[in-house]
Amino acid sequence: MIILDKTVILETRQREPDPNVIAFLDDLDPTTTYTTAITVTEIMRGIGLLPPGNHRKELENTANTLLQEAFAGRILPFNVEAARFIAVDAVRNEHPRLAVSFADRLVAAIAKSNNGATIATRDVPRFEALGAQVVRPWK
């Protein structure tokens, strides 16, 4: 199981996405490729912060279509098992020299609670610091 974080999903929306990321995604089995409810929140929040207008509306529509079609039935929730992982990590691993967002902590906990799923991300050090398995599609 691969969990795509926001950096990978947003890369696909670039005018000229990194060819390594596109090749990585093309090689994935869609039935074992997921994202998280946290990632959905991050993406939708980013769009919501844009000024009202056609560009924002277009991004909202694109994001909704992507999430409803590309990830239909494959958006992982933050659940009790993930809550246990984040609680243990919070006690065991505070990272004063590495800025790790709460959202990244949640995504890592979701991955670990799903049989140690691998997170595809650009932010490898942050997720590694949390003990998550990671892959960086950018080469």
What's the SSE blueprint?
Elements: E1 2-4, H1 6-11, H2 19-27, E2 33-36, H3 37-48, H4 54-70, E3 75-76, H5 80-92, H6 102-113, E4 118-120, H7 124-129, E5 133-135
Parallel strand pairs: 1-2, 1-4, 2-3, 4-5
Helix pairs in contact: 3-4, 5-6
Structural class: alpha/beta
The figure for the number of domains is 1
Radius of gyration: 15 Å
Total E-strand runs? 5
CATH architecture: 3-Layer(aba) Sandwich
What topology, given as strand order, has the largest sheet? Answer: 3-2-1-4-5
- The CATH superfamily appears as 5'-nuclease
The CA-CA distance between the termini, in Å, is: 21 Å
What would CATH call the class?
Answer: Alpha Beta
In terms of DSSP E residues, the strand content is 5-15%
- State mean pLDDT (0 to 100 scale): 91
User: Largest sheet at a glance?
Assistant: 5 strands, parallel
Oligomer: single chain
Count of alpha and pi helical runs: 7
Regions with pLDDT < 50 over 5+ consecutive residues? none
Secondary-structure element order, N to C: EHHEHHEHHEHE
CATH topology: Rossmann fold
Classify the helix fraction into a percent range.
40-55%
What shape does the CA trace take? globular
